[in-house]
Amino acid sequence: MKVFLATAGGFCFGVKRAINMAYETAESVSKDVYTLGPLIHNPQVVKELEASGVKMIDRIEASKGHPLIIRSHGITLDEMTKVKDAKVNCIDATCPFVKKAQDYVKKLSDDGYGVLILGEKNHPEVKGLMSYARGDVIVISSPGDIDEAGIKKRIGVVAQTTQTIENLQKIIKKLIPLVSELRVYNTICNTTNVRQKESVELARRVDCMIVVGGYNSANTNRLAKMCKKILKKTYHIEIPDEIDPEWLKGAETVGVTAGASTPPYIIEKVVKRIENLGSGL
Amino acid sequence: MKVFLATAGGFCFGVKRAINMAYETAESVSKDVYTLGPLIHNPQVVKELEASGVKMIDRIEASKGHPLIIRSHGITLDEMTKVKDAKVNCIDATCPFVKKAQDYVKKLSDDGYGVLILGEKNHPEVKGLMSYARGDVIVISSPGDIDEAGIKKRIGVVAQTTQTIENLQKIIKKLIPLVSELRVYNTICNTTNVRQKESVELARRVDCMIVVGGYNSANTNRLAKMCKKILKKTYHIEIPDEIDPEWLKGAETVGVTAGASTPPYIIEKVVKRIENLGSGL
Predict the structure, then answer these.
(1) Rounded distance, CA A193 to CA A200, Å?
(2) What is the pLDDT of residues A225-242, one digit of tens each?
(3) DSSP 3-state assignment of A250?
(4) A245 has a pLDDT exceeding 80
(5) Contact in structure between A90 and A63 (CB atoms under 8 Å)
(6) Of A276, B35, B233, B250, which one has the greatest count of Cβ atoms within 10 A?
């Protein structure tokens, strides 16, 4: 059995940066540091961080006297104001690409455009983005969600950084006949783009596809969905032990890809386990 | 034989306005008035205008001492400057929708965007639009014309007012992955849109389709092309006499539509001739 690993899988720039910032902060102080919600969407990494003194809290007030790290997905403008008012020692690990998207939402809103965000309403990144629009803001996740009556004549579009280009293209296509002016910020992270493309191409070539990453990770879920469309034998796992030997039966080639918040050591273990199971089958 | 007439065919707002302005000017002065190039793209109307003292010239200098009417498609910024410098009595009949598109090109250019115009390079409207961009300006007429290497990161798009929404959608789809910011002014005139849609739907329902309008009219040519895609038996004519009775043989239903610069009386004569030929066949 041959295992092919997507080179663009695993930690992205923003995730690596946030993790480094958290460890560095934890090392530099002699007490616990806190993150508001999970720093990244990978339970295994969050657990390890906890062991190193980087602990998750849900309320800003709980961080009193401790450094507070802002998660990679960012927080809402309201929360950011509260953090500033609370005068806690804040380390902002918001991904710079997410920060840029927040700035664009604010700019569009300030300039009087109706803001349309392509993303998942309940994702922390999207909640953060939404909060930077003062008035009209619509969140949709597919072209079918567009309510024509609710579309203003001047619309600005910003995408959750982990969305697909294809989805953005479909949305824009539907918007063009409805508006007189359209402003699109292509805020889809290039890493996301490259990872999705490479993974889909890999799925086309192999007999079985394993997608590794947190179940709460939007980009991993999307990756698994995209690969599943191409290859029915696609499986989303968080840790190597979840691989069912049955999945690999008859497979001569197996592809492995991973979401942006999946650490390298988990990916390596996944590859090793597939190879072991392959040689034993 | 039944004849169906597209209600959205014929004179559009901008054309009607330009013709009225020309006749009113001719009536109010006791000498010839001039237009720089044909006022609209319909040879029959231009000929009638000429009989009423509205004559076509090619050079601004030739208008000395006579009112000069600016054609509905607009002129270039350079020409406009020359007109102003020449201190001629200028009546600007540029379609307000074209004027708006010119303003958008200028604004995009001033704001540092690369300007992409969707239209026909040699059409006077497009030549006018192009002239309002200071630096980078690209004209394309289909997605295949896009040279990826020449696309700036921040692109603004303006369309010739008579383009199709479908073409604009295709262009934008291709641009999205190439840029970080995209600004689209949907400058396609709604009349164009409605006319194209109605004509295409009509072409679907009838046995033969007649498209009436100047051979030099971009929007009529486009209309004919769109209908021909649906119905092979589509014919572009300028005047009723051009209808070949052979075209109508076996047709139970005939659709008639007309470009934006086709006068009502020609459309009426076309319908009448089809009915006469139909009853005689």
Answers:
(1) 11
(2) 999 999 999 999 999 999
(3) coil
(4) yes
(5) no
(6) B35
Establish whether B125 is a catalytic residue.
yes
> A-B interface: how many C-beta pairs under 8 angstroms?
55
Q: If residue B234 lies in a helix (H) or strand (E), which one and from where to where?
A: strand B234-237
Selected for mutation to probe chain A from B184, B188, B192 (highest A CB count within 10 Å) is B184
Q: Is B4 helix (H, G, I), strand (E, B) or coil?
A: strand
Catalytic residue among B27, B125, B268, B275: B125
Residue B85 corresponds to which tokens in the numbers above? 């410098």
Task: Kindly state the average pLDDT of the residues B235-240.
Answer: 97
Distance CA B256, CA B231 (A): 13
Catalytic position from the list A79, A120, A125, A238:
A125
Amino acid at B114: G
Number of neighbours of residue B229 by Cβ within 10 angstroms = 11
Q: How confident is the model at residue B111 (pLDDT cuts 50, 70, 90)?
A: very high
Edge to edge, the sheet with strand B208-212 lists B2-5, B253-258, B208-212, B234-237
Are B262 and B43 in contact by the 8 Å Cβ rule? The answer is no
**Phi, psi angle pair for B256, to nearest 5°:** -130, 130
Q: What angle do CA A30, A34, A40 make, to 5 degrees?
A: 125
End-to-end CA distance of chain A: 9
Residues of B in contact with A169 (CB under 8 A): 172-173, 176-177
Residues near A271 by beta carbon (within 8 Å), at least 6 away in sequence: A3, A5, A256
- φ, ψ of residue A140 to 5 degrees: the values are -135, 155
Give the tens place of pLDDT for each residue, A135-176: 889 999 999 999 988 899 999 999 999 999 999 999 999 999
Q: Cβ distance B203 to B255 under 8 Å? A: yes
d(C-alpha B250, C-alpha B278), whole Å: 10
Secondary structure of residue A34 in the 3-state scheme: strand
Report d(CA B236, CA B210) in Å as an integer: 6
Contact partners, residue B54, CB within 8 Å, separation at least 6: B22, B23, B25, B26, B32, B33, B34, B35, B39, B69
Q: What angle do CA A146, A109, A82 make, to 5 degrees?
A: 110
Residue whose structure tokens are 């949709």: A140
Q: Give me the count of residues in chain B.
A: 281
What is the C-alpha to C-alpha distance for residues A270 and A177, in angstroms, rounded to an integer?
Answer: 47
**Which helix (DSSP H) or strand (DSSP E) does residue A62 occupy?**
none
